[in-house]
Structures are given as structure tokens and as C-alpha cells.
Write a structure and sequence with these properties.
180 residues, binds iron/sulfur cluster, two-stranded antiparallel sheet, alpha+beta, two-stranded antiparallel ribbon
């Protein structure tokens, strides 16, 4: 019987009730990713940002997610304890329509990489530096489906077409088919 393939899923759980808005996570993230490592810190370079509303005692860490080439058309409006938040406030994307999660000098997108490093860290730095335990790190194994889904093929073909043009993709596929 074939062993089930698994992949490691890394998660940082956020308990907003424990966050006190100290921003230590922002500082250490930017230092961890400085060149050379730990040579400087600048929260504008952090891959986590803490939404702070001290008068309402609301602090919410938001992690940098995927880059998106264009702003989305949907918007989510949040009301927490009567305060209305900007429609994009909790979005994790590095998006052209706002300045969050962009490297200040180059404008390149920033994304949380879970502090990938060699040797591997026991826990991401923001978790280690969060003294209130608002951030906790978890790992789990999840089964991987090896089968290629049709949508995966569509996305792959579209990416190739964007780069080389459909005609070249079609010609290449025809040549490959003739080899069989
Ligand atoms: S280090 Fe922890 S307590 Fe401080 S802002 Fe970040 S998540 Fe909140
Ligand atoms: S896990 Fe690492 S890369 Fe991600 S926000 Fe925390 S310190 Fe930054």
C-alpha cells in the first residue's frame, strides 16, 4: 500500500484579546528580514502590521499575504465595538491601491514567509517576541492530493500564454504530442 503523502502546514494563531499593540512583532520581523540580518529595523518593512486603536483598546495583527496585480472589486466593511474600519483594513494582500506590505524603497511586495531560514527556527520571530502570547505557532501535516486538477492545468497554460503568447504554446504542445 502506498504511503499517503503529506505536507507541513504552518499556522500562526492570533488571539486579539491578548494583543496589547506593543508592535514588537513588527520590529523583529523587519530586523529579521534586514540585510544583513538584524542590522536595522523599520516596521514599514515588516510582514505583519498591527492595526491599533488605543482609545478603544483594539489591537489586531494582520499578516502580509499574496501579492495581487490589481485591486479587487469586493469590499468587506467591519464594525468592531461600534468602530467602523476601512474596507481594506484587514486585507492581507499587497495591492496596488494601497501602501501596505510594500518594501518602502523598491515598492516590491512583502509577504510573510514564516521566517524561513537555515537552520530552521523553532518558532517564527514574531511569535518568539510576542510576550503576551497573542501569537502562537502551530504545525500540522495534511494529506496531499497528487492528482492534477483541470483548473491547475488552466492556470498553468494561462501563465505560459501570458509569457509566450497562445500561438507559441499551441505550437509547442503540437510538437510534444507528435513525439508520443
Ligand atoms: S508582539 Fe504580540 S502583543 Fe505586541 S503587537 Fe505584536 S501581536 Fe500584539
Ligand atoms: S512569521 Fe516571520 S516573516 Fe512572518 S510576520 Fe512573523 S516575523 Fe515576519
Amino acid at each position: 500500500m502506498n504511503a499517503v503523502k503529506t505536507k507541513k502546514i504552518k499556522t500562526i494563531k492570533i488571539d486579539v484579546d491578548k494583543c496589547n499593540g506593543c508592535r514588537a512583532c513588527e520590529v523583529i520581523c523587519s530586523a529579521m528580514h534586514a540585510e544583513p540580518r538584524y542590522s536595522s529595523n523599520n516596521p514599514a518593512r515588516s510582514r505583519v502590521r498591527v492595526i491599533r486603536d488605543p482609545l478603544a483598546d483594539i489591537y489586531i495583527p494582520v499578516y502580509a499575504g499574496e501579492y495581487t496585480a490589481a485591486e479587487c472589486t469586493g469590499r468587506d466593511r467591519y464594525v468592531i465595538d461600534g468602530k467602523v474600519y476601512d474596507e481594506c483594513a484587514f486585507c492581507r494582500a499587497s495591492c496596488p491601491s494601497r501602501g501596505f506590505f510594500k518594501e518602502p524603497d523598491s515598492g516590491l511586495p512583502l509577504k510573510c514567509d514564516m521566517c524561513e531560514s537555515d537552520p530552521t527556527l523553532k518558532e517564527p520571530m514574531c511569535v518568539q517576541w510576542c510576550l503576551t502570547d497573542a501569537l502562537t505557532y502551530e504545525e500540522r501535516e495534511e494529506p496531499v492530493d497528487d492528482a492534477i486538477e483541470p483548473e491547475d492545468v488552466d492556470v498553468g497554460l494561462e501563465a505560459l500564454a501570458n509569457k509566450y503568447g497562445w500561438q507559441q504554446v499551441v505550437d509547442s504542445m503540437s510538437r510534444l504530442a507528435k513525439k508520443d
